[in-house]
Design goal:
It is an enzyme of class 5 (isomerase). The chain is an all-alpha fold. The chain has a single domain, classed as Chorismate mutase (Chorismate Mutase Domain, subunit A). The chain has five helices and no strands.
Length: 160
């Protein structure tokens, strides 16, 4: 014999999280509605990133076919400057935007290097001495994925 499933009315909304035990139903309803909006934005970000990576994969194949380096420090600097400006206009911390973009760029270059390794000669990437100085200048000493996570943790107070 199985236990009856909880009704929709009695099952707590998972978006309520730990706050459900701390606030009244009206505040919880408002919080859940706000978090539903955030969840939708997060889903949109995931799909946008997927589309971005599909485009950068095509770039990686083109670079590999023409023996171009995986990294393009000048393009990266231009993109960072452009997106920091956009971030400021959008009232998003430009330094956070830079960290986020650096995280994406690192992943894109890793993909480009893998594409190149699978289909052609090794390519010059961020870890090549030719690119090391510009990478150090651009990343301001960022050394790990954890740096991105810390940046995200510092900004999450605005999203919850």
């Amino acid at each position: 014999m199985t236990a009856p499933e909880p009704s929709a009315e009695s099952a707590p909304d998972p978006r309520g999280g730990d706050a459900a035990a701390l606030v009244d139903a009206e505040v919880m309803a408002e919080l859940v509605a706000m978090r539903a909006s955030i969840d939708n934005i997060d889903a949109t970000l995931v799909y946008l990133l997927a589309e971005r990576f599909k485009a950068t994969q095509r770039v990686g194949h083109l670079k590999a076919a023409h023996q171009l380096p995986a990294g393009d420090p000048q393009r990266e600097r231009n993109q960072i400057a452009r997106l920091k400006h956009l971030a400021a206009e959008a009232q998003l911390d430009p330094e956070f935007a830079e960290k986020f973009l650096n995280f994406i760029i690192d992943e894109v270059i890793r993909h480009h290097q893998a594409i190149s390794a699978a289909g052609g000669p090794a390519q010059v990437g961020r870890n090549d001495p030719k690119n090391q100085q510009s990478q150090n200048t651009r990343t301001n000493g960022r050394t790990s994925e954890r740096a991105h996570e810390r940046a995200h943790e510092q900004t999450t107070d605005h999203s919850r």
